[in-house]
Amino acid sequence: MKVTVRKKLPRLLRYPAANIGLALVATYLIVAVFAGALAPYSPIEQRARDRLQEPSAQHFFGTDEFGRDILSRLMHGATNSLRIAILAVSLATLLGTAIGMLSGYAGGIADNAIMRVMDLFFAFPAILLALSIVAALGPGANNTILAIAVVYTPIFARVARGPVLAIKEMEFVSAARCVGSKHWRILTRHILPNMVAPIIVQVSLALSWAMLTEAALSFLGLGTQPPQPSWGSMLSESRRMMEIAPWMAISPGMAIMLGVLGFNLLGDGLRDALDPRLRM
Amino acid sequence: MQRFILQRLLALVPTLFGISIVVFLVMRLIPGDTISAMIGTQYKLTQVQAESLRAYFGLDKSLPEQYWIWLTNALQGNLGFSVRSGQPVLGEILNRFPLTLELALGAVIVGLLIGLPVGIFSAVKRDSFLDLFGRLFSLVGLALPNFWLGTLIILVLSLYLGILPNSGNYVEFTQNPIANLQQIFFPALTLGFAFSASVMRATRSSLLEELFQDYARTARGKGLRENAVIVGHCLKNALIPVITLVGVEMGYLLGGAIVVEEVYALPGVGRLLLNGISQRDYAVVQGAVVFIAFNFVIINLLADLAYAFVNPRIRYE
User: Fold this and answer.
1) Do residue A238 and residue B277 have CB atoms under 8 angstroms apart?
2) ipTM for this prediction
3) Nearest CB to A136 within list B29, B252, B258
C-alpha cells in the first residue's frame, strides 16, 4: 500500500489548485529553512536611524518602530512559525495515531473508554483549549507547541481509528494472525501502511491550522515571545503604529494568509489524489 | 423525537462532567506555586502569609478534595471570586455574555447572508466566472486570519475613512439599538467572514449533488422552470448539511470571538478571559473557560436536535 501512495502522489500535479499550494508551501519552506542566508538584515538588531521607514528598495517591506527590517523579520518569523507547526503536528500525529490505532485494534471497553476521553477534547473550541493550556503553562514557543499538539492529538486519534476498525477485519490480517504474528507486528507492518493516506491529508491540513493558531496565540501575546519575530506578534505590534506606519500591518497578515492557503490547497489536493472518496 | 431529545440530554451529563475535570486539571498545570504565580514577582510573601493564602483558596487540600469543592460550588452557581476585582466570577461572565452571544449571532447572520447566495450561484452557474470567483472567495476566506481582517478593517476605517468604530463602551441593544448595531457590525463581519466561506463551500457542494438527483430530473421533465426546481426542490434538501454546519460553527465562533473582542477592544467574555490570563486571575480564567465550553456543548446539542428535526432519518440511526 505504501507503493500505492507513492504511485498516487504524482496525481497531485494534475490539480492546478494543488500545484499552487505546492508552490506556496515550497516557497515557505525554502524561506523558513534558509532565512539566515536570505534575510538582508538581522531580525532583532535595532537601528534608531531607520525607524518607521516606508517600503523602499533598501527595506522592501519597510521598517518597524525600532528600525528593524520587516522583510528580515518576516523571513525569520517563517522559521519560528514552521518550527512550532511542524513540532506540534509531529507530536500530535505520533501520539494521536498511536492512540487511535491501539484503541481501534483493542476494541471493546478499552476502545470505548479511550475514545470517550478523546471526545472530551472536542467539547472545547480548539482555540479556547490551546489558550487555556498556554495560560496555565505560561507563554512561550515550547508551551505553544504542547498546546497545539494536545488540541490536535484527538483529531489524529479519530482519523487513525476509523481505518483500523475496517482493516483489522480483513483477511490478510487474519492470515498474519494465523501464522503467529505478534500484535505489534500486525499493527506496524500490516495495518499502518494501509492507513497512510488519510493521515498524510490530515497532516497537511493540521499544519495550516497549527500555523494559524501559533499566529493567533502570538497575536494575543502568548505564543512566540519578543524579541523573536513571529507573524502574529508582528501584527499585534503593528496595531500600535497603525496611523503612522500602516505598512507594518500588511505583510505579516499576507504571510500568514498565503502560508495557510498553501497548506490548505495542498491538503485538498492530497485528499483528491490519495483518497477521492473523502472529497467534499 | 422525544426519545431522541432525552437520549441526547442524558449524553450531555458525562460530557459536562468531563469538561469540568479537564478544565480543573489544565488549571492545575500551572508550574510551581499558584499563589506566587498570582502574586507575581513584585511582592515577596512570608511563609505564614503564603500558607494562609493557600488555606484561604483551599490549595492545601488534596486534588480530589479541591475538585469536589469547586464542582459543588459551581453547581450552585458559584465559580469563585475574581482576585483582582473581588466580584463573583459568574456575575462578571454573565454581565459580558450578551455581547459575546450577540457577536456570535451577528457573525452567523453575516456568514449566511454572504455564504448562502455565493454558494447557490456558484453551484447553479458551475464552472462559470461567477463560480470561479465564489471558489476563490471561499479559499481566501478560510485562510484569512480574523485578527488580520479586523486589523485591516480598523486601518481602513480610521486611516482612510476617518471613522473609528467606538468599541470601548458597549451599548446594549435594548438601550440603543442603532448605536449597538453600529458597534457590533464590523466585529461581526470580521468574525463571520471565514464562516461565510465555510457556508459557501457546504452550500455549493451539497446543492451540486442535489441538482443531479433523480427527483430534480423528474421535476425538470414535468416542465418546471429551472428556478422552481432549484428553489422548490433542491435547495430544501441541500440546506440540511448547512444547518449542521451553522450549529457546529456557531460553537467555534464563540472561540473566535475571544480574538475578535481583543482586536476591537470589546468587553465580552473573551476579553474577560484574556485579561484574566494576563492578570493571573485564575478563578476568572477557569470560570470563563468552563462557561464557554458549556455553551459550546449546548449549542452543538441544539444543532443536533435541529438536524434531527429537519432530517428524520437521523433519529432512527
Assistant:
1) no
2) 0.88
3) B29
